[in-house]
């Protein structure tokens, strides 16, 4: 590992830990190096006793990718310490400029070490409505794909609602995203990669490229079903997905 990879991981780790934004690196790196920074960042967290609880996809909306001029989706990791129980109250002091988005969450049902494994019938065991908190650790962020990947794809927290057995026929589902009881975004899970069933395949492809195995029991945050919303203090945030039910939390 080069000194730069470790240094950038330490800077981003400290920014997340102290909820203090850092300047974006002046010198960009390539995507492969950015994933090494992300891995190093996660290693620092695991050293402190955290545990990987799953993976997430980002930039799953075709519109968002076109707007940002990028062609591929991105993979991040989520850890146990950032899981928020459904219905909980969450202090915002630990975040910098948090935003929230509604997601479909899948429960990984088997070990997935290759794209072929992602097509196994038991690849996904269950599905749930979810909310992701994203929080870029950069100040005045100007979009850069490697910088987002290095920053663990802005992953900062996630809430998972009640699990339902996975039914692949139910993939195009209505989504209502509410803040304080008012719908702020409506959409469809079809906005996730055009079909959220592709999420496990994309996650398997990106993970395999890095030599990461997806483990049974991990969550897969499949990607945002609508645009993200800012998360103000006091907000009650709720996502409802047709056939999957609802999930919520309150910001304090
Ligand atoms: C990075 C986006 C990561 C998504 O849904 O695209 C992401 C960001 O906007 O900070 O989770």
Note down, in words, how this protein is organized.
This protein has 6 helices and 14 strands. The chain has 252 residues and is of the alpha+beta class. The chain has a single domain (3-251), classed as Fumarylacetoacetate hydrolase, domain 2, CATH 3.90.850.10. α1 packs across α2 (31-47). A hairpin with a 2-residue loop joins β9 (174-179) and β10. 2-oxoadipic acid (OOG) binds next to β11.
Indicate the topology.
Elements: H1 3-18, H2 31-47, E1 52-58, H3 62-68, E2 74-79, E3 83-84, E4 89-90, E5 99-108, H4 115-118, E6 124-134, H5 145-150, E7 155-160, E8 164-165, E9 174-179, E10 182-188, H6 199-209, E11 219-224, E12 229-230, E13 236-241, E14 245-251
Helix pairs in contact: 1-2
The chain binds 2-oxoadipic acid.
CATH architecture type: Alpha-Beta Complex
CATH superfamily: Fumarylacetoacetase-like, C-terminal domain
* Sequence stretches where pLDDT stays below 50 over 5 or more residues: none
Oligomeric form of this entry? single chain
Order of helices and strands: HHEHEEEEHEHEEEEHEEEE
Q: How many strand units?
A: 14
- Which shape, going by the Cα principal axes? globular
Ligands in the structure? 2-oxoadipic acid
């Amino acid at each position: 590992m080069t000194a730069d990879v470790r240094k950038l991981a330490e800077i981003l780790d400290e920014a997340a830990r102290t909820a203090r934004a850092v300047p974006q690196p002046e010198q960009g790196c390539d995507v492969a190096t950015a994933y090494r920074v992300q891995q190093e960042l996660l290693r620092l967290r695991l050293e402190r006793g955290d545990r990987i609880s799953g993976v997430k996809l980002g930039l799953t909306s075709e519109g968002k990718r076109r707007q940002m001029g990028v062609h591929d989706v991105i993979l991040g990791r989520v850890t146990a310490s950032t899981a928020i129980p459904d219905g909980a109250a969450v202090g915002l002091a630990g975040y910098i400029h948090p935003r929230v988005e509604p997601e479909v969450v899948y429960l990984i049902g088997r070990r997935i070490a290759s794209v072929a494994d992602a097509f196994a019938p038991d690849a996904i065991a269950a599905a749930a409505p979810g909310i992701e908190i994203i929080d870029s650790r950069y100040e005045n962020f100007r979009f850069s794909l490697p910088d987002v990947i290095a920053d663990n794809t802005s992953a900062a927290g996630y809430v998972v609602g009640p699990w339902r057995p996975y039914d692949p026929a139910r993939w195009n589902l209505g989504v209502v995203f509410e803040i304080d009881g008012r719908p702020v975004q409506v959409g469809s899970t079809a906005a996730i990669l055009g079909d959220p069933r592709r999420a496990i395949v994309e996650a398997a492809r990106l993970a395999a490229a890095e030599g990461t195995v997806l483990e049974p029991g991990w969550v897969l945050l499949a990607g945002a079903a609508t645009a993200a919303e800012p998360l103000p203090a006091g907000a009650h945030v709720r996502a409802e997905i047709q056939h999957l039910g609802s999930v919520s939390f309150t910001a304090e």
